[in-house]
Amino acid sequence: MRLKHLFAHPLYQYQLISFLILYLLSVSATAQDSYVFNMQDADIRTMISTVSEVTGNNFIIDPNVKGKVTIISNKSMSASEVYQTFLSLLDVHGYSVVPTVEPNTFKIIKGISAKSKAVPNDLNSNFKGDQLVTRVIKIQHTQAMQLVQVLRPLVPQHAYLAGYADSNMIVISDSANNIDRLVELVERLDTPGDGNIEMVQLKNASAKELAETLSSLNRTKKTLSQVVVADIRSNSLLIGGDATTRMNLKALIIKLDTEVNTLRNANVIYLSYAKAADIAAILNDLVKLGDKQKAGITSEIIISPDENSNSLVVKSSYAKFTEIKDVVAKLDIPRAQVHIEAILAEVSYTLEKELGVRWETSVSGSGVVGEANTGLRLKDIFSLSYLNSAGDIKAVLSILQSDTDTNILSTPSLLTLDNQEASIVVGENVPFLTGSQQSQDGLANPFQTIERKDVGLTLKVTPRLNKGSTIIMDIYQEVSNVIPKVENIAAVDLLTKKRAIETSVMVEDRGMVVLGGLIQDDLTNNLNKVPILGDIPIIGELFKSSKVETRKANLMVFIRPTILSNPVLANEMAMQKYQFLRSKQQEQQQQGIRLLKSEDIPVLQEFYQPEGSTVVLPSPFGTN
């Protein structure tokens, strides 16, 4: 009697049924690793426990998971097939399996709550069966929002279905089987239309801006299927879609591509760095070239520079003005500056020796040997002379040696823009005789023509910045000076000595390069003698004189460029030069100058720039 009441208790009946199911499954699994499920009105938790034993997975059961399940099978199943059957069973009863971060551990919850949990992403279609997954479907031809309206009735209430208009995609969170069915349906619906593309030529509007406007309209009206692409080169629009869509688009484009007020076609572009005249010349050349390519059709584009405000006045359609504005923005850019320092070093040495006897006469035009110089020269001090009683013949014994050392160092420097020629001239403007005339038309009217030329140091440089820090420079450098007239050399005017270099070099930023040099070693031997008498041995030394001159000169030219890419570097370079000159003046003031008070010696003032001081320019230059 007690045993009968014991088996009648529901708890013991549940435990007994579970034991029998596990026993039968274990016997079947031991034979072939396969399982046969036949359960009638079994508790769902018992079913979950059985599947956990078969698959080795751990399940966390929501307290709301309750009910009876029935499964009938007439063939054996593997462990994976058992798990897929289990997922289908749960889906029938409105429950879903969601994985956790722990391996082989899953949560069993109500399907309506599963879509907000960590559902696995099935981006590559790896999941099968009734496993709850999330997949993204890319739509190629049709609007995603249109397909969402078609697919909405085909998904269960607990599934998630939404469209993303910007990327034209659909996001679905449902069982893998149902998603595969929906994907097959989408592939049949997502087919291209008639495939026609039409080009609409614009006359007034900008293709780029109008395409952006129509694309924004397309995103706003998500049911509108259209494709709009701008061709900036031809200022036209490429439109795609079905025939009705293209017809509506063309009608809308015609309304938007209307001519604006003529006065509004005149626009002003203010330049920040380039010259208005230079930019206007470039743009007008482009306009003329475009007119030639259009078989003589005159363009309605007018570009005029205003040098006072450094701006361009452009009269054209809005589309053409947009193109011109883009070109000007690329041309009107700040150019880097280049500070160029040159070093010209010249070291020369001259040694002159003279020994001999010269015969002169004080009688002019006698033709004896030569005419005596009545002036007193330096070499006369070191000469011995004998004059006969008549005073018309003089013998001069000359013994002279002179040494001359020259050390010249010039360091010119100049600042210029990239690809802009700069020059510096330091010297004198010397007059040169180019012609003379004593009479004109039988009348005494003497005159001379004179041309003035710069004599001194000349440096011309055109730097061009390349990619990186490499600089290519076209250089012309000249050093010239007036030299005294040389004895026994006839010259109608001044004599100049000139050394010039013209070349193109490539050098790195702050690097130094030697342009060229001159190493000169001259030896001159002059012998003056009386014919026949000067050839007599021993006695002939009284009738001749010798002069030997040795000259050595070394000339080198060095160039060092520095790129000043921003105003800060340019200001630092200017401050260095300013402080250098000021320190030299202060040093001279400290040493003092004879007959002059120290406070009367000029000295540059100390440079002072208030912090945060800026120059405020008037409109439109003060606007960004």
Summarize this structure briefly.
The chain is of the alpha+beta class and 624 residues long. The chain is 27% helix and 38% strand.
Task: Write structural notes for this entry.
- The N terminus is likely disordered.
- Strands 15, 16, 17, 18, 23 and 24 form a 6-stranded antiparallel beta sheet that branches. Strands 19-20-21-22 form a 4-stranded antiparallel beta sheet, with no helix packed on it.
- Strand 20 and strand 21 form a beta hairpin.
- With 624 residues, it is an alpha+beta fold.
- It has 13 helices and 24 strands.
- The longest helix has 25 residues.
Reconstruct the topology from this structure.
Elements: H1 2-8, H2 10-32, E1 38-43, H3 44-55, E2 58-61, E3 68-72, H4 79-92, E4 95-99, E5 105-110, H5 111-114, E6 132-138, H6 144-151, E7 160-164, E8 169-175, H7 176-189, E9 197-201, H8 207-220, E10 227-231, E11 236-240, H9 243-256, E12 266-270, H10 276-293, E13 302-306, E14 311-315, H11 318-331, E15 337-360, H12 378-381, E16 383-387, E17 394-410, E18 413-417, E19 422-440, E20 443-465, E21 470-483, E22 495-508, E23 513-529, E24 544-564, H13 567-591
Parallel strand pairs: 2-5
Antiparallel strand pairs: 1-3, 4-5, 6-8, 7-8, 9-11, 10-11, 12-14, 13-14, 15-17, 15-18, 15-24, 16-17, 19-20, 20-21, 21-22, 23-24
